Amino acid sequence: MDPARIEAMLDFLALADRLKTVERRGRVPLPDGTTRRENSAEHCWNLALVALLLHREVAAEIDLGRVLSMIAVHDLVEIEAGDTYAYDPAARLTQAAREAAAAELVFGALPPDLGARLRALWEEFEAGETAEARFAMGCDRLQGFLQNVLSEGLAWKEHGVTRADTAPRMQPAMAADPAFAALIGALYARAAAGGMLPE
Amino acid sequence: MDPARIEAMLDFLALADRLKTVERRGRVPLPDGTTRRENSAEHCWNLALVALLLHREVAAEIDLGRVLSMIAVHDLVEIEAGDTYAYDPAARLTQAAREAAAAELVFGALPPDLGARLRALWEEFEAGETAEARFAMGCDRLQGFLQNVLSEGLAWKEHGVTRADTAPRMQPAMAADPAFAALIGALYARAAAGGMLPE
């Protein structure tokens, strides 16, 4: 391999490492009974595990390699743009512009062929048009919801999120496949039983 | 989907969440200039990104979907067995037995078909015999080494690790493909230039 290519890959990996310091609102239960915020790198691994569990439960034929590739890169723009909370309408208004600028910087740090390949995966996820992108979206929303249920709805309570507030985010996931509807339905039931999400 | 299957999948995901609390020795640089330990969930995501960057740089034809699936599950046993430091010979003596017992518990929490599928991926990674498992091993060792270089060799210094100590772990990765040899060679050069790893 060309030395410049090697150095560029290592520099990109040094940049990508910062995803481990991007905090989400969802919380991770700790062994001592407290919680801390989840970071976006942990979320990406968790999402990969959800996709691995579910890819044969859905009706569509899913290219798992493409899904897992999309998942690995789908949040890289947050290194520059930060995580945008699902229930923060003001931040969501500027999200697309912030993330497009971040994509130039993050994918631009790679050798052109690799940058184009990773950027195409991110764009496929964002566009949500392929079966793989819709499946990844369903896994993403399921994982975010699950994280709240695992931490007794702390982030929901912190931000005053109601069950109705979650509908615009969770309905597309539930509509993506009956398997998502079943799992998310079961999570709504757990949230209700635990008094985590007011009507 | 059968309700019992749904509940078992959610319970497994609740258990798997604990991987985010398993600390490794490698350290993550923070924006304030300090570091903290990396956890195994972050490591798994990072490894997936390394695999995505490298799978077309190696000579072997690699099934990326299988590699990324293996990566997503390869550390799940640490939920019960903990992370075993690469340079802790006493802990490594008991590692296989501790991880085999953990596998029973972790994969046994899933519906049998899913448990068998995930367990087979973990076993393939551990056996290191397929092209995909060898590729994943190379990515794993590269990522661990990179994490030390990104945090100025702090974990190496903390444990008195020398360049010679790293050879038994890094040589198999460098032998797996010239691309790994080139990238790890460049990382050794960065470590040497930064005085991170004494001879």
From TrEMBL, chains A, B:
Domain of life: Bacteria
An example molecular function term from Gene Ontology annotations: 5'-deoxynucleotidase activity
Keyword Metal-binding tagged: yes
Pfam families: HD_3
GO CC entries: cytoplasm
SUPFAM superfamilies, A to Z: HD-domain/PDEase-like
Boundaries of every HD domain copy: 16-171
Keyword Lipid biosynthesis on entry: no
InterPro entries per the UniProt record, alphabetical: HD_domain (IPR006674), YfbR/HDDC2 (IPR039356)
Keywords assigned: Hydrolase, Metal-binding
Protein's recorded name: HD domain-containing protein
Species per Swiss-Prot/TrEMBL record: Roseicella aerolata
